[in-house]
From TrEMBL:
<protein>
    <recommendedName>
        <fullName>CAAX amino protease</fullName>
    </recommendedName>
</protein>
<keyword id="KW-0812">Transmembrane</keyword>
<feature type="transmembrane region" description="Helical">
    <location>
        <begin position="21"/>
        <end position="41"/>
    </location>
</feature>
<keyword id="KW-1133">Transmembrane helix</keyword>
<feature type="transmembrane region" description="Helical">
    <location>
        <begin position="47"/>
        <end position="66"/>
    </location>
</feature>
<feature type="transmembrane region" description="Helical">
    <location>
        <begin position="86"/>
        <end position="106"/>
    </location>
</feature>
<keyword id="KW-0472">Membrane</keyword>
Length: 129
């Protein structure tokens, strides 16, 4: 059974979590829109890398604004469970892209076009692409 003080404390924690989530999503949406428009206008590849870090930037900025600190965030990589999760997080998008692109290429919907220039062009030439 929860005591009155504990119930109030839980409601306060839930309310703070909701505010934090709303702030995070607001910052994420605004920065994503701005960077997305900049990438479309400038076609700058380095901006795409910056765009990929918008969730991390939004999270850090939210914690700074709400004065939450970072002590409750765990970055422990020694746990096997965490390493498996990181492995799956890297592997699953590659599998999905591999299946999707393979279907498109082998069905003839699109033709594989290697990018022109760059350091991989000699490898594409050796492979006959």
């Amino acid at each position: 059974m929860l005591l009155r003080g504990e119930a109030f404390h839980n409601k306060d924690k839930i309310q703070r979590a909701k505010i934090g989530l709303q702030l995070f999503l607001s910052i994420l949406t605004i920065t994503s829109i701005i960077l997305n428009v900049l990438v479309m206008i400038t076609k700058s590849m380095p901006l795409i890398v910056v765009y990929m870090f918008t969730p991390a930037f939004s999270s850090i900025l939210t914690r700074i604004i709400l004065k939450e600190g970072f002590k409750d965030v765990s970055f422990s990589l020694g746990n096997l469970k965490i390493l498996k999760g990181i492995g799956f997080a890297l592997l699953i998008p590659m599998i999905i892209c591999g299946i999707t692109y393979s279907i498109a290429w082998f069905s003839g919907l699109v033709r594989f076009q290697p990018p022109q220039g760059g350091m991989l062009e000699p490898i594409y030439n050796i492979l006959g692409f």
